[in-house]
Amino acid sequence: MHRIFGRLTGLLVAGVLVTADAQQELRQKGRGMTRSELARLNPQSESTSVLLESVKALLKNEQLEEALPFLKEILVRLDGDDEKKARQTLAFTLYQLAYCQMQLGEYVSGARNFVRFADAFPDDLQQESARVMAAQCLTMVQQWPAVEEQAMLVLQNLRLTEELKIPAVQLLAEARYQQEKWAEAIKPLTSLYRMAQKDTVRSGAAVMLVTCYVRLDDFPNLFHFLPHCDRVSRHDVGLNLALLEAGDSHYNNGEFRKALLLYRLVLTKAELTAHYEERLRDTKAAMKPFVADGKQTLTEYKERQLKRQQLFDRLKAQYDVIVDFQDYDMDVMLRMAQCYNDLGRNWPAHAIYHRIFDENPEGELADQARYSAFTVMIDEREWAMATVEGYAYVEQMPNGEFRDDVTLNLMQVRMTRQQFELAYEMGQKALELSPDHKYIDQITYLMGYIRFHSLDYQEALQHFTRVLGEWPESRYYESSEYWRAMTLLFLGEFEKAESAFAGYLSNPKYEGRLYEEDASYRLGIAQYGADKFIESEETFRSFVDRYPESTLLSEAYAMLGDLRAAESDLDVALDYYALAREKAQNIGQVNYPLFQAAKVLEMERRYVDIVEMMSDYLGQYGSEGDFANAANWKGKAYKGMDQYSRALEGYFEVVNAYGNDASLSGVDVILNEIVSDYRNPELAKNQTMIMEALDEHLHTVSGKAERTLVLRYQTVFAEIAEGGEREAFVEAVVQAKNIPAAGSGTLLLIAREAVKLKDWALVHEAAERFLANFPVSNQMLYVMIADLDALIGEGRYTEAAERSEEILLKFGYSKSVGYARKRRGDAFRLSGDFERALEAYAEVLSIREWRGALTPEALYWSGICKMELGATDEAFAYFQRIYVLYEGYADWVAPAYLKSIQCMEALGGYEQEIVNTLREMLANERVAATPEGSDAAERLEALQAGEVVP
Q: Residue 215 is inside which H or E element, if any?
C-alpha cells in the first residue's frame, strides 16, 4: 500500500492495541491455521468459543481473509445481545472485522465497521483508534468529507496521546487538502510537520504544503511470494509474464482466488524497468577492452565477452518487451479487478477499475474499465452508485465500445428503482446517441412498458406497434404483442383489444406462449367490454376448464357470476360467486365475489342470507379482511328488515373488536356509517337509540386501557353533538398527546379543528401521521386540505402551492379538490404574485365540477388581484358579476358590492351609479344584515343629503 505519508497500523488482541513490533512477535509465537484445519471448520455450525479461538489463531498469523467468515458469523450471533460479556466479545469481533477488511483492501466495509464500533462502544479504549483507522480506510476510497469528520471527532479529545494525535492530524490535513480546502489544510499540515517524529511523514507534509497536491496510490501489494525469490528472479520479465499466464489459466478455470494471488505477485513496470536498466548498465560496464596482463587468454576473454554480450542482448530483449507493453500495469490491475468481481468482492474491483481510467483516461483499457466499474455496482445492487457510474460513462464515452450496453442497463437500473420517467429519458438518450442501437428493439419495448405503467397508453401503443412492425424476429415480439393488446384494453378499445388478444393466442410463431393464460382471461374481459356477453361467457367457461390451477381462476368465476347476474340468472350467479370465493388465493379475490353476491341477495331481499354470509366472513377473516364493508352490509341487511337495533349492535360489535387498533381505518368507515344513519332523515326515529348506544359504549371502554377506541367514540360525538356538548368532546380530542393513539377519523378531526384554532404545528403533526399511516384512506384529501390551510396560515406560500399540486395529482378534478386549487390562488395572492393567482382562480372557474360556492369566492379574489394590478375596470367587472349572477351567496355578494363601489370611486364619474348600487345592495335583506350592509347604510345616508334624484 502506497501513501504520501505513513499509516497507523495495529492489531487488537484481547482488547490491546499493539505496535508493529508486537505484531511481529505475535506472528512468531502463533502458528496460525493450516488449510486442512480450516477445511474442517464450518463457521455456521461451530460453537462461538471455537469461532473465537479460530479467529485469534488466524489473526496471530495474519490469515486475515480466512478470518472473515468466522468474524461475520460471531457478529450475527451476538447482534442484539446486551449481556456484558457478549458486548465485550462483540466489540472485539467488530473491531477485528473492520481491521481485516482494511488490510484486505475492503475499505468501504472496513470504514463502516470501524465507525460502527466507535459509535456503539464510545467508552472503549480503542474507540479513538477505530475512528483513525476508519478515516484511513476512507482515504483509500477518497471519501474526504467523511475522513475529515472522523479525524475531527478524534481531535476533540484534548488529552489525545501522541500515538493517535499525529495520524489524526495527518488525516485531517490530507482530507482538507484533497477537498481543496487549501486554507483549512494549512494549520493541520503545519502542526503535522512540527510534531511528526518520522522523516517520511515530515517530508510528506512538506510536499503537500509546498505543492498543495497529493495523489494516493491505494493499491495493497502483499508480496507473500516475494521472500521465496531472489531479487534477480523476482524481477525477471519472463517470470512475471509467466505469473500473468498462470493467473489467466486459473482464471479461465474459475479459480479466481488463485488467479488473484498470482496477479498480486506481478511486479510493476517501473520496478521491472529500473531493475533491467541497472543490470544493463552493470553488464555493459563489465564489457571492457582486452588487456594482455596474463590473467586471461584472448580466447578466454572473447568467450567471456560473448557470454556478456549474450546476457546483454537477452536482458535488452526482455527490457524491450516490458517497455513496449504500454498498458502493462493497467492490464495487470484489470485482471485483478476481474478476479475481485468474480469473487463477489465488488468494492475492491470497483476501486481498481476507477484507478485504471483515472490514471490513464486515454488508454486502451479505460473504456472497458469504466464499463466494468458500472457493471460491478450493478452486481453489488448498489443502484445509486451504478447510476453515477453509468451516467459518467455516457458522458465521457459517448462513442465507447460499451455505450449500448450501458444505456440499456441504465434504463433497467432506473426501472428497478421505480424511476420510470428517468428510465424513459435514458431510453430516448440511448436512441439519440445510437440510432442503430444494438438493443433498439428492447429499448423500444421497455419505453412502451414504461409508458403503459405511467398510464400513457397512446404512446405505449406506438412503441409496442413499432416493435411488431420493424423487428418481427425480436425476442421482445411476443411481449410487445401481448402488451399492445393490454394497452388497447386499458384504452377502452375493446373490439381492437379482443382482436389483439385473439391474434396473440393464435399466432403460430410461439412454441410456448409466455402470456397464454393471462391473455385468455383478458380476452374475456375485452369481449365483456365490447358488449359481446355471449362470447365473453364462452371464453371464461373455457378458461376455467383449461386452467383449473390458475391464479385468475377465482376472478374468472366472478366474471361468470357478473354475466349471469346481468341476465337475471341470479341463482346461477350466486353459485359462480361461491366458486370464486372457494378458489380465491388472496383476500381481494374473496372480497369481490362476496360483495357482488351481497348485491344479488339484496335484489332478492334475502337479507337473512346476507347477514349469515357476512357473519361467516367476519368470523373467518376478522381484521385481515374488509371487515368494514362486511359490517356495513350486515347493517344494511338488518335495516332492510327494519331491525335497526340489530344493525347498530352489529356495528358496535365490530368496532369494539378492532377499534383499539389505530391502524385499522375500516373502524372509522363503520363509525362514519353510524354518523350517516344519525343524520339520515329516514332513520331520524333512531337518533336517541344511537346516542344512547354511543354513550353506553364510550362509558364501557373509558375505564379500560383502550385509548384509541375511546378517542374514536369521542370523535363520533364531536361529529353529531351540538353546542357545548360538542365543544367538550372537541376539546378532549384535539390535543397533541392524542395523536400517537389516533385513528384516521380522529386525526382528521384534530387537523380540521386545529385549523380553526390556528394551531398550525398540531395540524401538521396530525396530517403527517395520517399520511404516513393511511396512504389509501378516502379521507386523505381532507387531511391534505387542512395541512394546506395550515401552510397558508403560516405564510409558507410556496409549500402551500406545491401541496395543492400534489392534491391535484392524487385526486384529479373531484369537487373537493376545487377548494385546494382555490387555496393555491390564495397562496399566490398572499405572496404578492397576482398574475399567477389570477391563473389559479381562472382554473377554478373553468372546471364544471368546482362550480357552486367556490365560484363567487374565486371571482371576488380575482377582482382583488385585478385591483392590486391597477386594472380597476376589470376588477369592477368581476365584482359586478358576483352580485348579478350569484346573489344567493351573501357572504361574497356583500363584500363584492362594496368593492365594486370602490372601483367606481377610483374610476370617477360614477356618483349616481354608486348611490344606485348602495340602494340595490340594501334591498337584499340577507346582504343588508351583514357588516358590509351596515357600512353601506351609513354611506347611503351620508350621500343622500346632497343627492339629486331625477
A: none
